[in-house]
Design brief:
Chains A, B: This is TetR/AcrR family transcriptional regulator. The structure is a homodimer. The first copy, chain A, has about 210 residues and is mostly helical. The mean pLDDT of chain A is about 95. At the A-B interface, helix 7, helix 9 and helix 10 of A face helix 7, helix 9 and helix 10 of B. Chain B binds a DNA duplex (30 and 30 nucleotides) through helix 1 and helix 3.
Chain lengths: ~210, ~210
Amino acid sequence: MDGARRSQADRRARSRSAILAAAARGLSRYGYANLVLDRVAAEAGYTRGALYHQFSGKEDLALAVVAWIEETWTAEVGRLTREVADPVEALLAVARAHAVYCRRDVAGALMTLRTEFAGQDHPVGRAIMKIFDRLVAEYTPLIAAGRERGTLPPGPPPEETARAYLATVEAVVIALAGREPYDAELADRAARGLLGLPPAPAGPAG
Amino acid sequence: MDGARRSQADRRARSRSAILAAAARGLSRYGYANLVLDRVAAEAGYTRGALYHQFSGKEDLALAVVAWIEETWTAEVGRLTREVADPVEALLAVARAHAVYCRRDVAGALMTLRTEFAGQDHPVGRAIMKIFDRLVAEYTPLIAAGRERGTLPPGPPPEETARAYLATVEAVVIALAGREPYDAELADRAARGLLGLPPAPAGPAG
DNA sequence: TCATTTACATACGCGAATGCACGCATGTTA
DNA sequence: TAACATGCGTGCATTCGCGTATGTAAATGA
């Protein structure tokens, strides 16, 4: 049976992703400071030995989780920024897609870490800040463009608006924690409000 | 000089509020797990001895901070719910007042603690949850009333809307961290959006 | 088949931070 | 002013979780 006899690379990869997933859930629930590596390893079906064999320590593990989330998020949500032509449509599409993305249990990880490391000087905090700043830098010109085109009314500076937009979409989705139709619906509403748009015409946005 | 010769009760009260204020700032910046009592006491001008004389421990201190914030918040923001007659006006007034309230440095404490203890079973977490649930229970009927009067359009269930409203106002204000006119302006926009209202007529809401 | 490497478990040392014991000095009451 | 209470500082014990060193079984490669 090849089922029992696995290659080393395969074992390594399986262990790594199992630990990564457990760590992501743990970070989302408990945050960084309260994350106990023993629990993470146990929940993944291993001991701390396996964890330390794959990651150099707690910090490295958290950074790997952040990178992993960023990757999947970009593939699932972030790409919309480039694929949707109209800036306003793109912003609203991201809000709804983010709600869908966050229906899994990893949802809160980024927000938890961001609030935990806000105003600190920690590598993990810097990694999160960097992602967030990149998104702000990506959405700020979209808002500016929408206002120039006249599809968005004037309002507070685009950067401030972008920051509020991101924080809001994140918070709404977490507050509703996957209550299926309403998370996307309310994320959409909040985004429209922040951008100064009137309510959506009618019927819940699919 | 009576300045040097203070009564015991006075000393106690001064120490207590100094420690409480330091703890509030510390919780807002570092959260509960990363809060070091030695630093709190030092920042207040004391040592841990004084702290343990006034509070039974870290948990008790955090609970006292939560109670203190709830008190000041209710006196400054929460009262609007009862003082403003129209439900929709009340909701928007609270959003703006919350932004103003959060311009002080204690702002993030409640949100930090709430995210830190979300999904845990910790006394501090329960205290925060209780406050939050009380607010949800207070705002849910306001939304329902607005919809019945026709001053609010229909939308997701009132409770979900109330939760999203609270989380949003909180998040927007923290994301903008006291950037003076825009925090209130964007909190107002987000609240309007969530409630399904059209944008405010014109001119930044004072 | 045997040497070497790899995946993982187990055991230990260590620092950090909490909580509590005790001690001193300043108020309070008689 | 003497006896006591209170605010507060200091030192100690304990806990907890991280990081590392060491051991073992399985896989690779000759």
